[in-house]
Amino acid sequence: MRAQKDNHPIIMFDGICNLCNHWIHFVINRDPNGTFKFLSLQSELARSIIASHNLNNKQLDSIILINKEQIFTESTAILHILIKLTGPIKTLILLWIIPKLIRDKGYRFIAKNRYRWFGKKSSCMIPTQDIKNRFIE
What we know:
By secondary structure, this protein is α+β, with helices and mostly antiparallel strands. It is built from four helices and four strands. It has helices spanning 18-29, 44-52, 74-83, 100-118, and strands at 10-13, 37-40, 64-67, 70-73. Strand 3 (64-67) and strand 4 form a beta hairpin. It is globular, with a radius of gyration of 14 Å.
């Protein structure tokens, strides 16, 4: 997969969703070593990756984490990301004890309402110069 040529985990996110953009900035601020790279779901490369892995439309409402050729979506993606972050937020990995079915149901409820509650942008975010190298495309 071309996108992961430098072996960094990739977080694919809805580039026009305000909540998703805040989450990406949250991750960047707690990822001082630059572990993660980021890719908007609206990009051609993301569409290609999604098609090549046979992900369905439901996953387009999800944060998608690609790590060493494994793909994680919804709450599982969030938990895999939290494990690699610094600070007290890491304590949320205790959410692993909640069954995936229940975690994902909560995730989907928020995802379904994210535009209504948090709004959306008319275009994908443009990263600032200091974090631009963390974004693919």
